[in-house]
Amino acid sequence: MTATVTVFLVHARRGEVAAQLPLGAFAGTLTSDRWTPYTRWAVDSRQLCWAHLWRHFAAFAEVPGPAGRRGRALLAETDQLFAWWHRVRDGTQARSTFRTYMRPLRQREILLWLGSQGRHAPTAATCREILVVAPVL
């Protein structure tokens, strides 16, 4: 038995059936992108992939004007989150301290909300999609 496993599956169709094949009755924490079939997993057992989110925020940051400023702010928040997490992982910071530090950072979802209201349509659409799944950030 292993505590950590990564599963990759190449499937001819991208649908709920394809998601179920490798996962079945999976009981751990599912880290995934925002693909719709994953929404069937309970919020307390799902985590969005931060690499996917970081790429979106980096794309926002390249847009001129308010969308770019929000993208850069989201990247800065993400970098801070990972700086704290790396301390937990290397044993120099308690997980409880990480949770305490994260409380105000989680309130920064306002950046996503502002992005969802912006004039840059691709950024606004992606921010709206991320907000739908905000509980699994």
By secondary-structure content and strand pairing, the structural class works out as mainly alpha
Q: Strand order within the widest sheet?
A: 1-2
First and last CA, distance: 28 Å
The fraction of residues assigned to DSSP E strands is under 5%
How are helices and strands ordered from N to C?
HEEHHHHH
- Assign a percent range to the helix content: 40-55%
Strand tally is 2
Domain tally: 2
Radius of gyration: 17 Å
Report mean pLDDT, rounded to a whole number. 85
Number of helices in the DSSP assignment: 6
Molecular structure report:
The chain has two domains: 1-48, no CATH class; 50-136, no CATH class. With 137 residues, the chain is mainly alpha-helical. Strands 1-2 form a two-stranded parallel ribbon. Helix content is 55%, strand content 4%. The protein is globular.
Give a nutshell description of this structure:
The chain has helices spanning 16-23, 50-61, 66-89, 95-106, 110-116, 121-132, and strands at 30-32, 46-48.
